[in-house]
Design goal:
Elements: E1 7-14, H1 20-30, H2 49-54, E2 61-67, E3 70-76, H3 84-90, E4 96-102, H4 109-120, E5 126-130, H5 139-152, H6 157-160, E6 164-168, E7 173-175, H7 179-182, H8 188-191, H9 206-215, E8 228-237, E9 241-250, E10 252-254, E11 258-262, E12 268-272, E13 276-280, E14 283-287, E15 289-291, E16 295-298, E17 309-311, E18 329-334, H10 350-363, E19 368-371, E20 377-382, H11 385-397, E21 402-404, E22 408-409, E23 412-413, E24 419-431, H12 435-444, E25 448-455, E26 458-466, H13 467-470, H14 473-480, E27 486-496, E28 508-511, E29 515-516, H15 519-525, E30 529-531, E31 538-539, E32 544-548, E33 554-556, H16 586-592, E34 597-601, E35 606-610, H17 615-633
Parallel strand pairs: 1-3, 1-4, 4-5, 5-6, 28-33
Antiparallel strand pairs: 2-3, 6-7, 8-9, 8-17, 9-16, 10-15, 11-12, 11-17, 13-14, 13-16, 18-20, 18-21, 18-22, 19-20, 21-34, 23-24, 24-26, 24-27, 25-26, 28-32, 29-31, 30-32, 34-35
Length: 634
């Protein structure tokens, strides 16, 4: 092939919302990847609709830029712990990492996770303190906190000797001395501006790119050695099928080349490469041949999986398999069996759901799908509520109808047979006046306080809480802090089972007949019930229409019409005042339901329902539970 291209692969790692995708935007803009007249959206790497709506990165993305003759492949990684399986794999494909930390928040729980994975791989990070223009920036303290974090994670002396740069990713600025930024004024209008190829106020992102070239050596020339490439990501193309993505460790890979693929368990299979693609800017470009050090995409191997090694046929040497951490949460996906099933969805049968889950397994390696005793029900396990709810939301938008159960924590057993459960590290920042309520709630949920401090009217709490105790807590937390609190969490470890956690505490209001809700009926119910429906909503028997103020369930008729009479009544339509109903997001609905309830998901609606729709079925089930309980106590 032609002259060897110098290549450095870097990953941008950080906690959620620290500015990773915004920094990548600055790299691309100032490297003139976009045309002068091209309309560029914010967080251009976040191509998924849900990523844009929620402002988070879910799937790692690749792009490349050129700087001083060196090709820099950039990987934008997820910051949320639920998508940590993506981060674990990416660390095997890069030579360097840029650790982004917010100048006021400092290191957060997920910062610890992504940093620990990079240090385990022996990578030496560059620290970039972002958003230094914040009014509450505490730059020196944050740098000290990062040093402490490195030491807690047993970083080597070489890893502790990391370069530090400061900047504002939104404006495309990186400097070695934060005082350089003090000389420029950034107004409110400037903060909303998109990146420009020139940077801002005479400053740009080049100091960070220069530091990358100075701090890291390009990948060594090993083109003369036998091919070896480990697959770290999967993708799917409707035209060319399954794609394997990874870095070529040595040798070169050519389109149409015959290779060996080493699989888990030592099996070796003969395969043939279809097309080969490399990244140029944001584009995936087909090439005849790609060299070692580059991150490439290969097609043609329909059964390729994460961790498998593509090798030269004469030298089938496997690389160490990539370990993916086990799921911590599971729920049942089942065919929608409500009276409204099939009215709006395109894909409603168990075959449709099975095929969609199988397709998801092609690329979502943190997911696990198991058959159950029922052909209409599948047990789906993932890394957390967000991980599973993103899958459900995607299915909903694609036209699927399904029902899902309450999430369950996956328990493990140690060598002595003791039950272990996942525990999460939680960091909460909230106004001082709400700290008492938060502490009380977390203690009830078997949380253990690690640290508490107060500054500038805000309390910062650090806890270890069982994942079970956090199910359903986020919406409570938002209500308790009136939306002013911030909660971050990440998986910590498996610890001995900590006992029962109290449930919801309130019963629900259940519709007793199918029909359309009326203002008159809701007006009569809302004194005792927080309503989830409004006049004109279609309901069915067994559908949950509100939350009772007491702990027991209550049967109600939200469709009851006012009797017509010629007498003027106090409850005439012009005196009815209705409280707005509570509207659930998908995550809130999953958090709200109990064991005997389901969330019904259609392309147009999210409904809550009882598993047993009729009052007679529910009464029989209650009587049976009582009988079994009495038997066990005798």
């Amino acid at each position: 092939m032609s002259d060897f291209q110098k290549i450095i692969n870097i990953a941008v790692i950080a906690h959620v919302d620290a500015g990773k995708s915004t920094l990548v935007d600055a790299f691309l803009s100032q490297s003139h990847v976009f045309r002068e007249n091209e309309e560029v959206i914010d967080c251009v790497m976040d191509s998924d609709a849900i990523e844009r709506e929620r402002g988070i990165t879910i799937y790692s993305k690749n792009c490349s830029i050129m700087h001083n003759g060196v090709k820099i492949n950039i990987v934008d990684t997820p910051g949320h712990a639920d998508f940590s399986s993506e981060v674990e794999r990416i660390m095997k494909t890069v030579d360097a990492v840029i650790l982004l930390v917010d100048s006021s928040e400092g290191p957060m729980p997920q910062t610890r996770f992504v940093l620990s994975k990079s240090l385990e791989q022996g990578l030496n990070p560059i620290l970039f303190i972002n958003k230094i223009d914040k009014k509450d920036a505490r730059i020196d303290e944050v740098v000290d906190e990062v040093y402490e974090l490195f030491m807690d994670l047993d970083a080597t002396d070489e890893q502790l000797d990391f370069p530090i740069l400061y900047g504002i990713a939104r404006q495309g600025i990186a400097v070695k001395d934060p005082a350089e930024v003090e000389s420029i004024e950034i107004g409110e209008g400037d903060r909303k501006m998109k990146h420009t190829p020139e940077g801002f106020g005479g400053l740009n992102i080049n100091p960070l790119l220069d530091e990358i070239l100075e701090h890291y050596e390009p990948y060594p020339d090993r083109t003369g050695e036998p091919l070896q490439m480990q697959v770290s990501q999967l993708a799917y193309d409707d035209y060319i099928g399954r794609l394997g993505i990874g870095r070529i460790t040595r040798g070169t890979v050519k389109a149409g080349q015959t290779v060996k693929v080493t699989k888990e368990g030592g099996e070796v299979a003969d395969r043939k490469i279809g097309q080969v693609f490399v990244y140029r800017g944001l584009q995936r470009m087909p090439v005849e041949e790609a060299q070692c050090g580059d991150i490439v995409v290969v097609s043609g191997i329909s059964d390729i999986s994460i961790g498998e090694t593509i090798c030269d046929p004469e030298h089938p040497e496997a690389m160490e398999m990539i370990h993916i951490e086990e799921p911590t949460l599971s729920m049942n996906f089942m065919v929608n069996s409500s009276p409204f099933a099939g009215k709006v969805g395109k894909f409603v049968t168990s075959r449709h759901i099975r095929e969609r889950l199988a397709k998801e397994l092609e690329v979502n390696v943190g997911l696990k799908v198991e058959e159950t005793d029922s052909t209409d029900c599948f047990k789906v396990s993932g890394r957390g509520e967000l991980h599973l709810s993103i899958l459900i939301e995607n299915m909903r938008r694609e036209g699927y109808e399904l029902a899902v159960s309450k999430p369950h924590v996956i328990l493990h057993r140690d060598e002595n047979g003791n039950e272990l459960e996942p525990v999460e590290e939680v960091v909460i920042t909230a106004p001082d006046e709400y700290s008492g309520t938060i502490i009380s709630k977390l203690n009830m949920r078997k949380g253990m306080m690690l640290q508490m401090n107060s500054e500038n009217g805000y309390t910062r709490l650090e806890y270890h809480v069982p994942t079970r105790g956090l199910l359903g807590y986020r919406s409570e937390f938002i209500n308790d802090t009136h939306g002013e609190g911030n909660m971050e969490r990440r998986f910590f470890d498996f610890e001995p089972f900590k006992g029962e956690v109290p449930g919801r505490g309130n019963g629900v209001a259940i519709a007793i007949e199918e029909g359309t809700c009326t203002p008159y009926a809701i007006w009569n119910i809302q004194e005792r019930v927080q309503m989830f429906v409004s006049p004109g909503t279609h309901v069915y028997e067994g559908m949950i229409v509100g939350m009772n103020s007491r702990e027991d369930d209550m049967d109600v008729n939200p469709c009851k019409a006012k009797k017509v009479s010629n007498q003027r009544a106090a409850g005439s339509d012009d005196t009815i005042k209705l409280t707005p109903p509570r509207v659930f997001s998908l995550e809130e609905a999953l958090e709200f339901i109990e064991e005997d309830e389901l969330v019904e998901i259609t392309p147009e609606d999210i409904r809550l329902r009882k598993k047993l729709l009729t009052e007679l079925e529910r009464r029989r089930a209650r009587n049976e539970r009582t009988r079994l309980m009495n038997q066990s106590q005798q």
